[in-house]
């Protein structure tokens, strides 16, 4: 490997810990490393990509840098800048590539030039290409026998630095990373981000805030750095800010909104999740002036993107094979590590109220006897809470229990029943849960070196 001139012999020796194919789901070492001996490099996790993206040079986690080796002749060209390795031999000559300690084989990678950010981007999505053409990272790990299901879990440590905040396990979850029970909602493994990748996708029942609510069932993807709503969601949220604060979301607004303790609720499969309303705005600097602007876009194609900011204070688990997404309140204090392997679903997760009835059904409806449009329904609609949401409880989450047997019920104001599920203090008892098959291993805490997911919006 050609290393940067600042990479000292001592730095190489310091990172020469053995990493090989004996690594299993219970002993994952966070982040990407490459070479012989392996050097840990700065890593970024991306929901919207499926492959490994390797720049011309990469920063190491100890402050040095390393060049990307030449592309080997045994790498198969997929399209411009993208290659697939179909061999169990080292990827780059004598160099080897490791993800969380797993030595990678038969996987696709994308190369970037010297102008790219000096970090490796790890895709957490799947590819729609046939496996023999474009092999996503998660697919590669399963094909190699490292993990039993195409799944991952993500803990965002809000008190850690940017490059240590995101901690990912593949094919497993750590029960020590969340407080209280975990609720699972319906995920979808056939939804793309408008390109070629399957990304974590979730059924949204509706949205609600003070004196407003909208029921409109639609699938949304979890985005790296973007809020983008269908026109009905966008209009409802814009109307809310106009009615409540006289804010025109097409213009600059006072930055005091960033400090608001009022929140907006999203509903997934009957479960409610809250986010402070200030997170929908961002700081803008222009001509030496700072102001705030609405950070939510609307798309003509009605694409639906939820910024991962929504789950910043949650432990997030995605199982593509079983179409499940688990959400729990992130642990607020260090807890013993308890890793459990995933194989037939998310272990110890309580299904949301409509989890088993969240398959979208499509129907075509006539509008004024001329135009046709498609509506989506997955389960009965229900009343959403439209009262005030003020104070420290704005970051708490609740499990919604009041529902209607009608699939076209008008929305009514109803306060949800508070539950220990997904509470902010993690002190409640766990409710009855569905138990997926999985092996559990309890250990003491381990050091994490994974890089945070960069390029987030400023809120």
UniProtKB/TrEMBL annotation:
InterPro entries, per database record: PEPTIDASE_A1, Peptidase_aspartic_dom_sf
Gene3D superfamilies (UniProt xref): Acid Proteases (2.40.70.10)
Presence of the UniProt keyword Magnesium in the record: no
A Pfam short name: Asp
Keyword Signal: yes
Residues covered by region (Disordered): 409-439
PROSITE patterns: PEPTIDASE_A1
Basic and acidic residues composition-biased segments: 409-420
Protein name: Aspartic proteinase
Native organism: Clavispora lusitaniae (Candida lusitaniae)
